[in-house]
Structure formats: structure tokens, C-alpha cells
UniProtKB/TrEMBL annotation:
Gene3D superfamilies: Glycosidases
Domain spans labelled GH84: 1-150
Pfam families associated with the record: NAGidase (PF07555)
PROSITE patterns, sorted: GH84
Organism name: Origma solitaria
Molecular function terms, GO-annotated: beta-N-acetylglucosaminidase activity
Protein name: OGA GlcNAcase
InterPro entries attached to this UniProt entry: GH (IPR017853), Glycosyl_Hydrolase_84 (IPR051822), O-GlcNAcase_cat (IPR011496)
GO BP, one annotated term: glycoprotein metabolic process
Length: 204
């Protein structure tokens, strides 16, 4: 029925999106969801070019970066992806994912993401460790990074004032710069306080 996989996927996704009444959040994960899966490159991929042309503009497209697990994300790469997809991508960040090797747990700060990255994103999903309690530092430092991004650049899709007001009372990264080591120390301090608080609860 369809001349290509990309056209088939886009057609089905568009129909579901329309049937659901154009929801505000509707995400599509392409078969080529990182640079290493694209042939020969994101901007020259016939598959991604078709997805960008055929997929309705209200549908968000998920992207993991240069690799499935990307140690670094640059604004230059995201600009290339935005160009071929005709929309800013939603980053599916596997930095902390350990489902492929459960012997490892990732407890470092959120890092390797270039300053000013939010202006190139439609959203960001963090894929965490499988162990729930191990994600305090990843999520806490992601929050610190997010606050620094809010302070460092204007983002056209953020309803800004409410977000900034809600986060303004938190400490760290208020000057628009993000320091992973400082973010880690802040997270550790808050995590110890949380652990101590839980230890004092009745029945603990």
C-alpha cells in the first residue's frame, strides 16, 4: 500500500493523532532515532526527510542524539535534526539508562549537554536508572540544569513567568550558568537531608 516504511509510519501516526483530536502532547519515535542509525547522516536520510515532510506539524519527534546513549548533545547537531524533521526534536535522554546493563548504576550529575540547548528542543525525557531510589541525583541535577537554561536563554514555547517563579526559590544556577560539580554537591546535600528526614519518620 505504501511506497516506503516512513510513509506508512507517518500515515498511521497522522491518523491516530487526528482520531484523538490533536492532543497537545503526541510523540512519535522514528526508526532512525539517533545519528548512528541514519544513513548516511540525519540531514541526508531519505527516511527522516519523508518523516519531516509527511508527519503533521503538531506531532513531536523523539531523538536520542548522536547515539542511543549519547554522552554529549550539541546545538549544531540538533539544528541539523530540526532542519530535516521540520520541527525541534524531543530529546529522549538515555544518559542514565541502565536497563542494558543492570550491574551498573549511574549516580553522576547531568552533564555533556551544551549551554543554550533548550532553544533547540521541543522537550526532554530522561530515561532513568531502573532502581527508583538511585535517580535522586540524576533528576535533581537535571532540575538545576533546567533552571540554568531558563536563566540563560529565551525559549519561545515556555509560558516563562510561571515556570521561572515556581523555580525561583530554589538554590543553585541562578546566574544562568550550569556547573555539574556544584549541581552534584547541591543534590547530595538535599539527598542526605531527605534520607535523614525519612529515617526520623515513625516506624523507620
Amino acid at each position: 500500500v505504501f511506497p516506503s516504511l516512513a510513509q506508512a509510519q507517518a500515515s498511521v501516526a497522522n491518523e491516530v493523532y487526528q482520531e484523538l483530536g490533536h492532543p497537545s502532547v503526541f510523540l512519535f519515535c522514528p526508526t532512525e532515532y539517533c545519528s548512528s542509525l541514519c544513513s548516511p547522516s540525519p540531514s541526508q536520510s531519505c527516511y527522516l526527510q519523508t518523516i519531516g515532510q509527511e508527519l503533521l506539524p503538531g506531532i513531536g519527534v523523539i531523538w536520542t542524539g548522536p547515539k542511543v546513549v549519547s554522552q554529549e548533545l550539541s546545538a549544531v547537531l540538533l539544528e541539523e535534526v530540526e532542519g530535516v524533521l521540520r520541527r525541534r526534536p524531543v530529546i529522549w535522554d538515555n544518559l542514565y539508562a541502565n536497563d542494558y546493563d543492570c550491574r551498573r548504576v549511574f549516580l553522576g550529575p547531568y552533564m555533556g549537554r551544551a549551554p543554550g540547548l533548550m532553544a533547540r528542543l521541543h522537550g526532554l525525557l530522561l530515561n532513568p536508572n531502573c532502581e527508583l531510589q538511585a535517580n535522586f541525583i540524576p533528576i535533581h541535577t537535571l532540575g538545576t540544569w533546567f533552571r540554568s537554561e531558563l536563566g540563560g536563554c529565551a525559549h519561545p514555547d515556555l509560558a516563562g513567568m510561571e515556570v521561572v517563579t515556581a523555580l525561583g526559590d530554589s538554590q543553585g544556577a541562578q546566574d544562568g550558568s550550569y556547573n555539574p560539580q556544584e549541581a552534584l554537591e547541591l543534590a547530595l546535600r538535599d539527598w542526605v537531608a531527605e534520607i535523614n528526614h525519612q529515617a526520623l519518620e515513625p516506624g523507620r
